[in-house]
Design brief:
Radius of gyration: 31 Å
CATH topology of the largest domain: Protein-Tyrosine Phosphatase, Chain A
Low-confidence stretches: 5-25, 328-344, 347-359, 370-488
Number of helices: 21
Helix content: 25-40%
Structural class: alpha+beta
Distance between the termini: 57 Å
Pfam families: FERM_C, FERM_M, FERM_N, PDZ, Y_phosphatase
Number of strands: 32
Number of domains: 5
Subcellular location: Cytoplasm, Cytoskeleton
Keywords: Cytoplasm, Cytoskeleton, Hydrolase, Protein phosphatase
Largest sheet: 8 strands, mixed
CATH class of the largest domain: Alpha Beta
Mean pLDDT: 76
Organism: Rotaria socialis
CATH superfamily of the largest domain: Protein tyrosine phosphatase superfamily
Family: Belongs to the protein-tyrosine phosphatase family. Non-receptor class subfamily.
């Protein structure tokens, strides 16, 4: 449990009871203007002796918030402080928080605590809508940053929610002119929005907002409360002199993140943190000690003053407390609070007043249109809004019509089911009237989805659970020769027996029956059923043996004898009876495995290296120090061999070839480590010999104070020599998370030059995952386009070790190609296939899970076109 070092006494307020007469005395009341997320405002008059919780409850009642009120807070405008805004403390009286020499106070009702996955974790549609409004405002103001491509996707969902399906007659050219989503918005950006608006056809407002939240919650700055800070770093040449680096400390649901120039450079989860404290301007974060590391386990920040330091400390306390309250099971509230030795203004749900009526709200979605634009592209809000006054009295109920629809449309009628996936091929079903929440539609649609989603029960066999995703095989290099004599529309399935030795299917046919071998029956909830084996599938080979000339009994014996193989695994090469749903079925299995948290179990079943492959060359005395990590080595069988170096032909790099099923495409890669100072010359020699034209760099030079890669290229417009090669950097462009470089390599012996392009992904931490799905998928799609220039030349990919981030990239591009070819996908088998060519590809279970989630993101958002031919 985290220890928060700052203790203070707290007296219980006696001012919980108050009456109307107290408001007649001007010096005993505050005039508080509450600004809401729809740009309306309301004035409340409240006794100055009330506590913050009293004002919060009345505002929440006014909004008709129920259980979700725990996510919200009131932000106080305080221009006298460096942080300008601070949250209203629910445990303190108002007179301690609001100055007495101001006529009216302006507070802003906003979401304070952002959950990791609001689309799933928040049930109330109105709360989700308020979350969308706040994120939309932060994007427009520039507080929340993202790539323009991601912003266009988000804007497309907003337009779908507000305008409905794209209609060529109603939505003519420049129909988006009056909408504003990001600073400096231009016509090119609006054209992108129009493209995504067309793709969102068929989505109800609630569906579009759910999709909006799924994308927004993957942004690096989502839900982060930033605090300015600085750290002192010792200079490399002189330890006595220290440099001061300005950065931001971000507090959010998962813990504390560090940002520099709007780029996340590190994250410390609450589980990693043991103590948070401060003294004057200094803020301390103590981490769990790593027994295998001599690194200091504490981090020290310097803030502007004591108040800023205390405010950051309190933000950490409140966030940690909130997510402890919401993640732990319900216990006796008194006993639970006593476990915390610090004071917080987070009030448990049991102490927050809730509205008496728990009924669904009807509300009107506010348009993103703006009345006018300023020169710099920022929006001008309407000059005035309805301004009502309310007096807070004990037991008062302010159930007003805020955000309610003026439409008289009835919600009692059941609406047609709305398909959540965009469809451009058929006329979408009708939707509820604009501005009305599709309550019945959503309920019906969820019931429909439950019928479509396969569910594995906890009683299912463990081996079967582990096979639920991995049983779909893409083309594997080890079996490509065996399958070449069959029809190209075949699939290899691997099945493990259950504890009784059964595989879960029956067959019929054989040469003695004068019929092909057909799957006659597949037993439900077995490895066979989860491997997408279906009745009517034709079996072509068993364990790499062609069975077309075998009798029925011989085939039965072959299947039974498979139990004696390694892990009892049975390999079936089949021709599916129905190929149209293979891709969708495989994606549903991935989706199901994610929802049931089976991915980690599956990942742990993987072998790190291929049996029988050796590392003799990499471990030799001459090459030992040419490896950045002593346990990440290339196989002798798949390593890249330098051709023109008579002294030593070794470099820590591996060929990785990924064939795409049902096509003649083979994506070729060279996976390598980040070069060391002594391996830069072999690195460039390999690039020259292999005729590589594209380098993908997935690391920075330094991470967490450690060198991850030597700078093997010169600075802009400079040159550097490595043996017989001279490298010059002719161009360099920074674009969001990426750096694009054009490098010219000169072979001095041959007097020849070539142009090499390098793309560096700067914000992907070691042993971690990218900040969001959208930018990562866009990055992979960009690589696919660049590959088309010369499909036979390998792309060189490296991170630090050349297996973790490198493996995620190769997996993702392979899957996108398979989706395009309308082929079944199995991420686990792709990882196996990569590890048969370089050990340990994809280092962590979290990287594997991220890749699987990114696959679904790319498919669900229509980012890759499926070739149905």
């Amino acid at each position: 449990m985290i220890s928060f070092r700052y203790l203070s006494s707290h007296k219980t307020s006696i001012y919980r009871s108050y009456n109307l007469r107290s408001f007649q005395l001007g010096h005993d009341q505050y005039s508080v203007v509450i600004h809401f997320l729809d740009d309306t405002e309301r004035t409340f008059h409240i006794d100055r002796r009330c506590k913050g919780i009293d004002l919060l409850n009345e505002v929440f009642d006014y909004l008709e918030l129920s259980d979700e009120r725990k996510y919200f807070g009131l932000l106080i405008e305080d221009l006298t402080q460096d942080f300008a805004y601070r949250w209203l403390d629910s445990t303190k009286t108002l007179k301690k928080q609001l100055k007495t020499n101001i006529l009216s106070y302006h507070l802003y009702c906003k979401i304070r605590f952002f959950v990791k996955d609001p689309a799933k974790q928040i049930d109330d549609e109105f709360t989700k809508y308020l979350c969308v409004l706040q994120i939309k405002k932060e994007l427009l103001s520039g507080k929340l940053s993202c790539q323009r491509s991601t912003a266009a996707i988000l804007a497309g969902y907003i337009i779908q929610s507000e305008l409905g399906d794209y209609d060529v007659n109603k939505h003519q050219k420049r129909y988006l002119n009056d909408f504003h989503f990001i600073p400096f918005q231009n016509s090119d950006f609006e054209n992108e929005i129009q493209k995504y608006h067309k793709l969102n056809r068929g989505q109800s407002p609630a569906d579009a907002e759910n999709n909006y939240l799924r994308v927004a919650s993957s942004l690096a700055m989502y839900g982060v409360e930033l605090h300015k800070a600085s750290v002192k770093i010792s200079n490399t040449n002189n330890s006595l002199h220290k440099s001061i680096i300005e950065l931001h400390v971000g507090v959010c649901a998962i813990g504390i993140s560090i940002f520099q120039n709007s780029i996340k450079i590190n994250t410390f989860s609450w589980d990693q943190i043991t103590k948070i404290s401060f003294k004057r301007r200094t803020f301390y974060v103590q981490l769990i000690k790593n027994p295998n590391s001599s690194d200091n386990n504490s981090i020290v920040f310097t803030l502007r003053n004591y108040c800023c330091c205390k405010y950051l400390w309190k933000s950490c306390v409140d966030h940690h407390t909130f997510f402890r309250f919401t993640s732990l099971p319900k216990v006796n509230i008194v006993q639970f609070i006593n476990k915390f030795r610090f004071r917080t203004d987070i009030v448990p749900n049991e102490l927050i007043a809730k509205p008496n009526e728990q009924k669904r709200k009807r509300f009107e979605r506010v348009s993103s249109r703006r009345t006018m634009r300023t020169i710099d592209g920022s929006s001008t809000l309407p000059a005035s809004s309805n301004h009502h006054k309310f007096f807070i009295t004990k037991g008062g109920n302010l159930k007003t019509s805020l955000f309610r629809s003026s439409s008289n449309a009835s919600l009692g009628k059941s609406e047609p089911i709305v398909n959540k996936k965009s469809s451009l091929q058929s006329e979408p079903p009708s939707k509820p009237p604009r501005g009305i929440s599709a309550i019945n539609t959503i309920l019906t649609d969820e019931n429909e989805l439950k019928l479509k989603t396969p569910v594995l029960t906890p009683s299912d066999d463990q081996d079967s659970l582990q096979m639920s995703t991995q049983n779909l095989l893409l083309n594997d290099s080890s079996i490509s020769n065996e399958t070449s004599s069959f029809d190209q529309h075949v699939i290899l399935i691997k099945i493990k027996p259950d504890i009784d030795g059964r595989y879960g299917f029956n067959i019929k046919g054989g040469t003695d029956k004068q019929a092909s071998i057909i799957v006659a029956k597949v037993v439900a909830n077995t490895s066979a059923s989860r491997a997408l084996l279906h009745e009517g599938d034709t079996i072509l080979a068993i364990n790499n043996i062609d069975i077309r000339n075998y009798s029925h009994n011989e085939i039965i014996n072959m299947i039974q004898n498979s139990r004696e193989r390694h892990l009892g695994e049975l390999e079936l090469l089949i021709k599916p009876s129905d190929e149209t749903n293979l891709l969708k079925n495989s994606l549903e299995i991935i989706r199901n495995d994610i929802s049931l948290n089976h991915l980690i179990e599956q990942y742990q079943t993987l072998e790190r290296q291929k049996d029988g492959f050796t590392f003799e060359i990499a471990r030799s005395q001459d090459n030992y120090y040419r490896n950045r990590y002593k346990d990440v080595l290339p196989y002798d069988q798949t390593r890249v061999i330098l051709k023109t170096n008579s002294e030593n032909d070794y470099i820590n790099a591996s060929y990785i070839n990924m064939p795409i099923n049902s096509t003649d495409i083979i994506n070729r890669y060279i996976a390598t480590q980040g070069p060391l100072p002594m391996t830069c010359e072999p690195f460039w020699r390999m690039i020259w010999e292999q005729e590589c034209t594209l380098i993908i760099m997935l690391t920075t030079l330094f991470e967490n104070g450690r060198i991850k890669c030597h700078q093997y290229w010169p600075n802009l417009l400079e040159t550097i020599d490595f043996g017989s090669f001279t490298i010059r950097c002719s161009r360099e462009t920074n674009e969001n998370e990426f750096i694009y470089r054009e490098l010219i390599i000169l072979n001095k012996k041959q007097n020849l030059e070539r142009i090499i392009y390098q793309i560096q992904y700067e914000t992907w931490p070691d042993h971690d995952v990218p900040n969001n799905y959208a930018s990562f998928v866009d990055f992979v799609l960009e690589i696919r386009e660049l590959r088309k220039m010369n499909k036979q030349i390998p792309i060189l990919v490296h991170c630090s070790a050349g297996i973790g981030r490198t493996g995620v990239l190769i997996l993702m591009e392979t899957v996108l190609c398979l989706i395009e070819a309308n082929q079944a996908i199995s991420p686990l088998n792709i990882v196996r296939q990569m590890r048969e060519q370089r050990l340990g590809m994809i280092q962590t279970a979290s990287q594997y899970q991220f890749a699987c989630e990114a696959i679904l993101y790319a498919y669900d958002h229509g980012l890759i076109e499926v070739n149905n031919n």
